[in-house]
């Protein structure tokens, strides 16, 4: 754990859609600068939870604070202090790289001078100066994903939420993407990442594992492997899923 400052506090979170419970009694804390993995199979309730935490959806019940703001009463303040990257990609394909940076910089309240400075820095860091004036739609998926993440933290938010950020990209690009996550964490940005790739759990400081809308385990990857006598996180997840099925 990088810092004892609590930036996300969740107590007894429920989210229901009619008779279906997508999130069942979730309780956890996340700390400043931490890389917190929110893992589980597709349909486990990860995306529903991340939308609530990022102010895009209301919970049915529960106490939730993000970056010090109440998700019921202070959603607009919350949104200004976080970054968000969705699994369906979040940049505009018909705008150029720089136009996207300028657009989001304006939304985040940055001045023209700040936007220009941050754009130059971002493109240099990613070695993408040569595509500054290319439309996003013309770029490879891996480049798009790295740009989307960098734009999501353009305003140096307290927390960035990443919903399945590496879906569909090759292993080398996934590793490069995680290098960007590490760098953000070193700067004090808390990274809350959902994924169904169990190997990515190894890159997180702590992980929670969702099964059927519930958090079935939460700890560091090394402690979870010890607890379940497993050689890797895939084995941990399979045992949790199997236990859950038996209980039903």
Task: Give a written overview of the molecule.
With 248 residues, this protein is α/β, with parallel strands linked by helices. It has one domain (6-247): 3-Layer(aba) Sandwich (Rossmann fold). It is 36% helix and 26% strand. It has eight helices and ten strands. The protein has a six-stranded mixed β-sheet, with helices on both faces. A four-stranded antiparallel β-sheet has the order 2-1-4-5. β1 and β2 form a beta hairpin. α3 crosses α4 (112-125) and α5 packs parallel to α6. The two termini are 34 Å apart.
Write down the CATH class.
Alpha Beta
What integer value in Å does the Rg equal?
18 Å
CATH superfamily: P-loop containing nucleotide triphosphate hydrolases
Query: Would you count the extended β strands for me?
Result: 10
**What is the 3D form?**
globular
Could you give the order of strands across the largest sheet? 6-7-8-3-9-10
| Strand/helix succession | EEEHEEHEHHHEHEEEHH
Number of helices: 8
Total separate domains: 1
CATH topology: Rossmann fold
- Shape-level CATH architecture: 3-Layer(aba) Sandwich
Q: How is the biggest beta sheet arranged?
A: 6 strands, mixed
Average pLDDT metric: 90
Measured distance between first and last alpha carbons: 34 Å
SSE-based structural type: alpha/beta
Organism: Ancylomarina longa
Pfam family, one: ABC_tran
GO molecular function: ATP binding; ATP hydrolysis activity
Protein name: ABC transporter ATP-binding protein
SSE topology sketch:
Blueprint: E1 6-17, E2 20-31, E3 35-40, H1 46-53, E4 61-66, E5 69-70, H2 75-80, E6 82-85, H3 97-107, H4 112-125, H5 141-152, E7 159-163, H6 171-186, E8 190-195, E9 206-211, E10 214-219, H7 221-227, H8 233-247
Parallel strand pairs: 3-8, 3-9, 6-7, 7-8
Antiparallel strand pairs: 1-2, 1-4, 4-5, 9-10
